[in-house]
Amino acid sequence: MLAEGKIYCKYLRMHLLSGMEYKGWWLMLIQVLTVVISDPIATVLLFSRFGNIGEWTVAHIILVYSLAVASFGLAESVCRGFDYFPWHLLRSGDFDRLLLRPRSLFVQVAASRFHLHRLVRPFTGICAAGWALGQLGVPLTPGRLGILAMALAGGCLMYCGVFVLTSGLAFFTIKGLDWIFLLTNASYQITRCPEPYLPRMLKSVFSFVLPMLFISFYPAATVCGWGYPRWLGFLSLPSGAAFLGVSLLVWRIGVRHYKSTGS
Amino acid sequence: MNFRNTWRACSSLFRIRMAEGLQYRVSAISGTMVGVFWALIECVLFTVFYTYSENGSWNNNGLSLPQAISYVWLAQGLFVLQSMNIDSEIMSKINNGDVGIELCRPMNLYTHWFVKSSAGKLGTSWIRGLATVLAGLLMPAGYALGGPASLPALFYFLLSAVMAFVLCSAFAMLVTAIRLNITWGDGPTYMLLLLSGILSGTYLPLRLWPDFMQTFLYLQPFGGFADIPLQLYIGSVAPAAALPGIGLQLLWSLIFIAAGRMIMKRRLHSIIVQGG
């Protein structure tokens, strides 16, 4: 386990250094920052025109939204390799080489890519969450920080699960995986809508299929005291881990099914 | 090189790219699913804001909820015309130095690439766009795409949508011409495309943007990508005001084409062919 961790860190360091060789690497930071900032513009503009929804202000929404985005960004940073896996490792046949090495497949694939600019998203997300908490007048106690950290960790696990699931399914379909966009960039869009107003179907899909609400909304509700049962806020880590567990199962089956592709 | 030969070359290029695009039917289905999901979330969001927010019932700048929902569905349908990145085939030609080969052809490079990239876009996307719109028509009442405001509105919408296609292609070519300078990397062109996407109204109907920006939003080029045709369809812009809007689209297309041609010509004077 320790050796695998060491390899993972070595891989990341290697990618980081090779990325820095490009003279314009900081341009990518600005680029991602533009994307991240422009994403919630529509929501902010809607609030500025229409005013609050009951007791829901823009700060409430930004808090939930930024938790989801930050955990997505974290997963993107640490599991970038899985994100690229179906396109770059599987179709080209390079995956065969990884199978020959006597090291954990998971670590090798996860660390096969790392981009520094992916860290912009979690960083901005965490800053936005901090701003929203300030707006809402919620002081940060260690307990609350713990819940938020758990939410981020759970969300990170969940989105890692999404990437692993895509990679696992890619063994069977090879191509035509664009729908996975639903589970990644499209999924956190639902946090733009206040939870009490979400249609029941969306709510159950995003709690029990993809535990989206458990990693963003309920922790925020527990931290700010929005009148939901407190224990719901603590479910972020277990639900994220459960999702990752199921995904790993699919991945395992996929690896066993794999009979080499590409040339 | 006479006009007739150029025309024949263009139409066969167009057909080749269309046929190529049609091969990827699975990706069209995936794309439709994403579009429908996206539109549904937007519908939910608009319903919530229009019904429960403080100013929703009056401060909507003449855009009612059914109109906003029709707008969302059609925007997802028209979204396929916008390019999120430069045509991948052309991009790889710029990167690996095949630009040199392209320059040997007895055809203007701008015209050639214009036809190629616009056909590439149309080939895969018209099915996706139509399927998304169809899904919108089949939704349950509250979330369904409504009919056009009137018959002239439908006519002007179709006309304006065709213009939107030309405008999007012209803009994509302008971006490609800028991208010919390889040393800049993807950053600047990517940001241009992102900006155009935001200002096109696909993120949020332009009418719902702050009031002081409305004149600017009407005159800027990217509204022609989606907002002008959509507003004509839902009737928040009267058919009488259609011709100025379509004229605006035409004007911006001409400006983009002229600028693209000029930049490309200048770039080709001092182009450094990369790769080998």
From TrEMBL, chain A:
Pfam families membership: ABC2_membrane_6
Residue ranges crossing the lipid bilayer per the database entry: 24-47, 56-75, 147-172, 205-228, 234-255
Domain of life: Bacteria
UniProt keywords, alphabetically: Membrane, Transmembrane, Transmembrane helix
NAD keyword on record: no
Record has Transmembrane as a keyword: yes
Cited InterPro entries: ABC-2_transporter-like (IPR010390)
PANTHER family attached to this UniProt entry: INTEGRAL MEMBRANE TRANSPORT PROTEIN, SLR0610 PROTEIN-RELATED
Name of the protein in its database record: ABC-2 type transport system permease protein
Automatic annotation (TrEMBL), chain B:
Sorted UniProt keywords: Membrane, Transmembrane, Transmembrane helix
Keyword Transmembrane: yes
Transmembrane segments annotated in the record for this chain: 26-52, 64-81, 126-147, 153-178, 190-210, 230-259
Lineage: superkingdom: Bacteria
Claim: Transmembrane is one of the keywords in the record: yes
Listed name of the protein: ABC-2 type transport system permease protein
